[in-house]
Amino acid sequence: MLADTDAAFTTRLSRSGARACAKAAIEDALVQLLVLERGDEQVAVEDICDRADLAQATFYARYPNKEAALLSVSDRLIVAALSSARAA
Q1: What CATH number corresponds to the domain at position 79?
Q2: 45-52 and 66-87 are packed helices; what angle lies between their axes, rounded to 10 degrees?
């Protein structure tokens, strides 16, 4: 019984890690395309998914649209800046 519980816990952790990796890949691709290469109007969800090497279904499982992904990136950058400022 304990082995079943351990396996289920490990599976949940693996899924959680995979979700986090996919989310990071989407956000990194979004930043690369928007900031470094093109403007907002020139980037589609399809472009982000191609750059992240993920299916559009993966994108939409994590974000309802491109703007939500951009807000998530902004939140991540603000948290990182605040953490860095506190550490200084």
Answers
A1: 1.10.357.10
A2: 60
Q: Which amino acid is at 83?
A: S
Regarding pTM above 0.90, the answer is no
Our count of domains for the chain comes to 1
Whether 64 and 25 have beta carbons less than 8 Å apart is answered as no
Q: d(Cα 48, Cα 35) in Å, to the nearest integer?
A: 12
Report d(CA 50, CA 6) in Å as an integer: 36
Q: Give the domain extent around 54.
A: 2-87
The amino acid occupying position 23 is K
Distance CA 46, CA 48 (A): 5
Summarised one tens digit per residue, pLDDT across range 15-68 is 677 788 888 888 888 888 877 788 878 899 999 999 999 999 999 999 999 999
